[in-house]
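BUG: 3D viewer hangs when loading the predicted structure for this chain

Environment: internal workstation, default settings.
Expected: structure renders.
Actual: progress bar stalls at 90%.

Input used:
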Amino acid sequence: MTGSWLDLPEHHAWLAAEEARLTRFAMAAAADHGFAWLDDQGRPDPARPVMAWITARMTHVFSLAALRGVPGAGALADHGVAALRGPLHDDEHGGWFGQAGTGGGTPEDTAKSGYEHAFVVIAASSAAAAGRPGSADLLTEALDTVDRRFWDDEVGLAVESWDRAWTRPEDYRGANSNMHLVEAFLAAGATTGDRRWHERALRVAEHLVHRVTAEHDWRLPEHFTADWRPLPEYNADEKGHPFRPYGSTVGHWLEWARLLVHLEAALGDAAPTWLLADAERLFASAVERGWRADGTDGFVYTLDWSDRPVVRERMHWVAAEAVLAAAVLARRTGADAYERWYRTWWDHIALRFLDAERGSWHHELDPDGRPSATVWAGKPDVYHAYQAVLIPRLPLAAAPAAALRDRATNGPDA
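Structure tokens produced before the viewer hung:
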């Protein structure tokens, strides 16, 4: 296809303008003890506590923005690092709480989740790549905690969560937290140069995608027993759960497709050929089964095991991961089909999700394309949207922070 958007300076300029708009919106999230959940207007929501996953995601974003030379971003990244080393950290037992307690004290819910810990690693990796103070120590502790508390080397996957004192693991295993640990391992390996983390990312991907997803005809199971048997009816009575919904989550198929391409880039000549093949199969499955699944433009949130829509709302993060998967596969393969989907989905985002009046993106739309809040209320963070406008302008790499650091060190052609 001639005139690929991925190579057009004008398209890059549009993405850069959206990046700047998202960054300005996100700056309002700084709060005591971390970063706040933002409402539809971009104001901190006082009804919600400071969450570790939001604070970590925003720290990651501001670290990337600091590497991009955005004034004020470095100070906000430092604010996030301080929060993760301070009120969100469990100084008694180690690890991180899911949320800050009142006044920065101990929260009522003290469970330790692999999902939050994955994002702490991502935040610390990006902050360390940006050279932010305290980030190297944060990364060392976060990786040590994941290694000792979450990683199960026997199966090559991570456990889901623990109680505060690390005495009782949850009797559940999840693909979502393991997917973000793949992202975390990619970032950590790229920042530290330790290939062990990339090798662990490969083990997770091989089990959950190359084996389990392939066995389910490229429908990704999300929920498992403690010995990793799929639970297809999990949360059948809470189908729209924001983190553990019933059925299969189409957006994760796209997110996995992207991560497999990043993993291939990280491993270089040692990468197995199935990484690209599986990425393309996941992408094709998402397009065939998830796009316009109910006859209307957009990706539905979830499907049942016969590919029927379950939760029909459209999530902004799914659209963001769709353009990212199309972008990296277009870069990797040069196939015109990925470029066409990249354009299609940016058109969809620009016309449906971008909120030109109040900033950022609508986080959820109903099946008719109107803003809704059945699963996600407000605009909690800009992590997915920010990466959607940044990564297409970067070379294929393990992680965006390391790619930006290397470009700053070695020049734009590095």
